[in-house]
Structures are given as C-alpha cells and as structure tokens.
Amino acid sequence: MAVAVIGLVISSAANVEGRSSRNSDENLVASFIFGDSLSDAGNNNYFSTLSKADIPPNGIDFRASGGNPTGRYTNGRTIGDIVGEELGQPTFSVPFLAPNSTGKAILYGVNYASGGGGIMNATGRIFVNRLGMDVQVDYFNITRKQFDKLMGPSRAREYLMKKSIFSITVGSNDFLNNYLLPVLSIGARISETPDAFIDDLITHFRGQLIRLYQLDGRKFVVGNVGPIGCIPYQKTINQLNEDECVELPNNMARQYNAKLKDLLTQLNENLPGSTFVYANVYDLTMELITNYKQYGFKTASKACCGNGGRFAGIIPCGPTSSLCQERGKHVFWDPYHPSEAANLIIAKQLLDGNTKFISPMNLRQLRNLS
Ligand SMILES: *[C@@H]1O[C@H](CO)[C@@H](O)[C@H](O)[C@H]1NC(C)=O
Ligand SMILES: *[C@@H]1O[C@H](CO)[C@@H](O)[C@H](O)[C@H]1NC(C)=O
Ligand SMILES: *[C@@H]1O[C@H](CO)[C@@H](O)[C@H](O)[C@H]1NC(C)=O
C-alpha cells in the first residue's frame, strides 16, 4: 500500500527519549509548499523566466544534488526543506513542474513555489514568467484529484486533513517586485495608497487560503514578510551603512504582517477544523540581522554570492559572481535570500520555538495535532 512506505519520526514533547518510530501510520507527514523564491525548489527551471537559480554556485552545499544547482535560491536547503526533514518527510517535496512529480512521489508532498511569484497576479511581471498564488492553488487542485486516484476519496481527504502541512511564504515580491518597483508599478502607486494596497493583498490572500481549505487543507503555516528593507540589495541601492535598513519597505512589511496575523485569527475562528499558524519570519530574521555575532555570523549585510557595491547586492548569484570564503558565516547567501546557515536557525525556531516567533503553536505541535 502506498501510504505504508512513508517513513516518519515521532518527536513530540512526550517522546522525551528521542526514540523514533518508523512506518507507523500515526504521524505521516506530507508537505505542500506554496510561495516565492524563499521556497522554490525548482519550478522555475521548467519555464523561461528572468528569475532562475539553476546556475552554480547556487546549491553548492545541497548534499542531495552533490552541490549542483537545483533551482533553490540558496546555497543549501530552504526553510521548507529543513522543516520537512525534521517532521519526518522521507524526501523533499517534488516541484510540481518537475517530470517526476507523478504517481507515488506526490504522497510526500508537492512544492508549487516560484521565484518572483506573489499574491497578486501582476507581481513579478519584471521577470516575465513566474507562478503567482492563484496559479499555485490551481495546480494544487490538480494534485488534489491525483490523491483521490491514488488513495480513494475518503482516505485522501483524511490524509490531507490530518497528515499534511500546508506552508505558504509569500508577499515579499508584492512589495519589492510590484508596489515598490519604481517604473512598472507607478500606476498602482498613484492610484493606491499603501493602506489600500495592503488591504487588497489581504483580501486576495484570504481567498487563496480559503480555496486551499476547500480543497481539504487543515494544518497551515503562513510566513509573514521579512525585513525586506534590510536585504543586501536594498542596502546597496540605497547606499546605506552596514547596520542601517530602508524604512519604507520595512514599514510596509510590518503593516501587512499585523493584518496578516488578524486574518489568520479570523480564519481559525471561521473555518471549522482549521489551524492556521503564524510564522513570524520578520522578527526572527531581524533578530539574526541585529545580533548576528551571537549566532556565529561574520556579516548580516554582505551577500556571500553576488556582485555590485559594498554589499555585493546588485547582481544575482551566478557563475561570474564573487563567492565568499565562509558560506556559513553570512546571514545572506545572495542579494535577496538567506543562507542555509540562517535558514537552519530560523527553521529550528519554527519547529520548536515559542509564541514570540510561531503562534498559536509551533510546527511540531501542529504536526502532532490529530
Ligand atoms: C525529482 O527530480 C529532482 C530533480 O529533477 C530531484 O532533485 C528529486 O530528488 C526527484 N525526487 C524524487 C522523489 O524522485
Ligand atoms: C490571476 O491569473 C489566473 C490565471 O491566469 C486567473 O485564473 C485569476 O483569475 C487571476 N486573478 C486575478 C485576481 O486576476
Ligand atoms: C478545483 O477544480 C474544479 C474543476 O476541476 C473546480 O470545479 C473547483 O472549483 C476547483 N476548486 C478550487 C477550490 O479552486
């Protein structure tokens, strides 16, 4: 039987000895991942786009590929990869557009995330092609039907509701590659105040999350928008000092995040049987950036791989980029994305941390909910 092959690790608080129990039907986990380049595991490899990470040295520390690029926008694993591994997923979720995302491979979960994608369809236009959230949910609807075929409708439903986690990390591009982009979005910025734009984002996102619920998603983790004013790209183009961040993007992110938190509370109250967990990526990343030395990093401002300006923050990571010596000592891998070392610290907090960073429960607790 297909399901029985899925291994798992029980690591609930009750399991203090750290024993693991494999092949028990109790704690299977499939991970369905949605969002942008923070989670993309290769979807953008399968269409033409200006947002790509299938070139070295991206993936240089990704063991499963022997250090070859996979389409991940970092040197190693993404936060979604690490969380899945820790929760007992036997393989990483396959990218929806990869040829091997068929048959039983999808039982461990599928990744729909796309570099450049956002909540709004217009977001990421600058990259020409990318998958926005509306399209990602359409794709999940295709996967949903495949589950009925693989397991039969009633077991499929049970499996998606109880044994699956839906992770969504999106929104950064709606600011960076839509509203705050000077040339392309000048129309939107003239016609919409920041408040109105943020309300629009929340309205669209609510609809997308409700569709996932209609398709039997019950356990959700939703990442808020990080401190996008502190990324090497912003520091470079605004010629900031090492310890400065750009105010407007950070302010917009915080304003959006407050409304996102309210949205998730509302959904928890109104969608029976659902659990929406709020992942405070903003505060987690800000903590790393502010106190980077305490976490063993040498810099939280300079990209490890990139080119341009003081922080290597203009040209994305590729074969001709300068590459840092100590990849584990940079908070940022490239002008936009955290390194695997930073992802490991963030993932650990999401898995086991307290309500300061992950609420109303952490991801191990979410996984163990029955
Ligand atoms: C699917 O293919 C990708 C690369 O194309 C590979 O990284 C991954 O391990 C494969 N996954 C499975 C479950 O076969
Ligand atoms: C976004 O695009 C998708 C697919 O092209 C479409 O189904 C959807 O209605 C669009 N959403 C909006 C808000 O225009
Ligand atoms: C899923 O697809 C079916 C058509 O195959 C459609 O009727 C249904 O509305 C879709 N569900 C969602 C939530 O998009």
Describe what you observe in this structure.
The chain is 35% helix and 9% strand. The protein has a single domain (14-297, 336-368), classed as 3-Layer(aba) Sandwich (Rossmann fold). It has helices at 79-86, 133-151, 153-162, 172-179, 186-191, 194-214, 232-237, 247-270, 281-290, 340-352, 363-368, and strands at 30-35, 94-95, 110-111, 164-169, 219-223, 275-279, 305-306, 322-323, 358-359. A five-stranded mixed beta sheet has the order 1-4-5-6-9. It is an alpha/beta fold. The relative contact order is 0.13. The longest helix is centred in the last third of the chain and has 24 residues, at 247-270. The two termini are 22 Å apart. It has eleven helices and nine strands. The structure holds 2-acetamido-2-deoxy-beta-D-glucopyranose (3 copies). One 2-acetamido-2-deoxy-beta-D-glucopyranose binds next to helix 2.
In brief:
The chain is of the alpha/beta class and 370 residues long.
Topology readout:
Layout lengths: L29 E6 L43 H8 L7 E2 L14 E2 L21 H19 L1 H10 L1 E6 L2 H8 L6 H6 L2 H21 L4 E5 L8 H6 L9 H24 L4 E5 L1 H10 L14 E2 L15 E2 L16 H13 L5 E2 L3 H6 L2
Parallel strand pairs: 1-4, 2-3, 4-5, 5-6
Antiparallel strand pairs: 6-9, 7-8
Helix pairs in contact: 1-10, 2-3, 2-6, 6-8
This protein binds 2-acetamido-2-deoxy-beta-D-glucopyranose (NAG) (3 copies).
Keywords: Hydrolase, Lipid degradation, Lipid metabolism
GO molecular function: hydrolase activity, acting on ester bonds
Family: Belongs to the 'GDSL' lipolytic enzyme family.
Q: What is the CATH-assigned architecture?
A: 3-Layer(aba) Sandwich
Q: Could you describe the largest sheet, including whether it forms a barrel?
A: 5 strands, mixed
Order of helices and strands: EHEEHHEHHHEHHEHEEHEH
Count of helical regions: 11
User: What is the overall pLDDT average?
Assistant: 91
Strand order, largest beta sheet? 1-4-5-6-9
Protein name: GDSL esterase/lipase
GO molecular function: hydrolase activity, acting on ester bonds
InterPro entries: GDSL (IPR001087), GDSL_Est/Lipase (IPR051058), SGNH_hydro_sf (IPR036514), SGNH_plant_lipase-like (IPR035669)
Keywords: Hydrolase, Lipid degradation, Lipid metabolism
